[in-house]
Amino acid sequence: MSFEFHVESYLSNKQLNNQSVSLVIPRLARDRIHNVMYYKVNLHPVAMRGDTIKQLIKLIVRDFGTLKDQSINETHILGGFEFKCVLMKLVELRPSWDQLQVMLLEEDSSFNNKYIVALVLTYLRIQYYYLQDESELAMTIVNIFKKYIGDYRKMKSVALDMDCWSPSQTVTVCVVHTDELVDWLITKDEIWGFPLGKCQWCQYLNQDDTSSDDED
């Protein structure tokens, strides 16, 4: 008998859209993530010596930041176990907009934040899908996504339509460009086994893509 899911799923006390922020991630996925050793060792409040974005950002930079042409940590991969764990923690802590902007900064020319950008974009799409298309927050997110539509940096990734926990699939690792990730996030309803809720503000990004194709 498997005891993989014996721990009750933790729900964050932070609220968004009148519910716990954790609920954007399905129960089964939450249970799996909270029982992964990486989460227990690195993302539990005791391990982090706190439970704040400040501590989490240090870990994100350590495990998903790269120096130009040299990886700090060879284990990082989009859609993998570690990525899902950090994404779950980001959801649970619900960073402020200022904190998200800090994570997207590219002030150091020797530092490549492409994996961190991918993490934040995925977080925004999963957590804020429900925003009305003309709300100020929705337009802020649209502008962030627009910035990366023309970003062609390469990253290692589990295939976007695969769940690394799926027992019926052989997990495929491939190269994904940032613009491909953006296109997937705004046009599909699932990524790496996580649902992408029906999103009104994505229509603005789809319209921009259509306009660009017409001009070509």
Automatic annotation (TrEMBL):
InterPro entries associated with the record: PRP38
Keywords, in A-Z order: mRNA processing, mRNA splicing, Nucleus, Spliceosome
Pfam families recorded: PRP38
Domain of life the protein comes from: Eukaryota
Entry keyword annotation includes Nucleus: yes
GO cellular component: spliceosomal complex
GO biological process, one term: mRNA splicing, via spliceosome
Subcellular location: Nucleus
Chief location of this protein within or outside the cell: nucleus
Cited function: Required for pre-mRNA splicing.
Family statement: Belongs to the PRP38 family.
Name by which UniProt lists this protein: Pre-mRNA-splicing factor 38
Record organism: Torulaspora globosa
